């Protein structure tokens, strides 16, 4: 298997890469935090988090803080492993390139 084959297509998009980067460092972040740090629209962020959730790389917790709804995203163990593997493949590609 080549190094390119080890890259995960789920992380091809810069927004998904950004979401996973934030979550791997913090374990969790809410919608507002991700939106502000990544500088994306609500719809854009929602579609990318849904794609990562579908792959079981993140999980979603919905709650209320006071009377305001809050959506929190948590990286899963599966997500940590997949993202770490993707980053390792990127590093090998850069070193060998």
TrEMBL record:
Gene3D superfamilies linked to this entry: Winged helix-like DNA-binding domain superfamily/Winged helix DNA-binding domain
SUPFAM superfamilies: Winged helix' DNA-binding domain
InterPro entries in the record: WH-like_DNA-bd_sf, WH_DNA-bd_dom, WH_DNA-bd_sf
Name of this protein: Bsl7504 protein
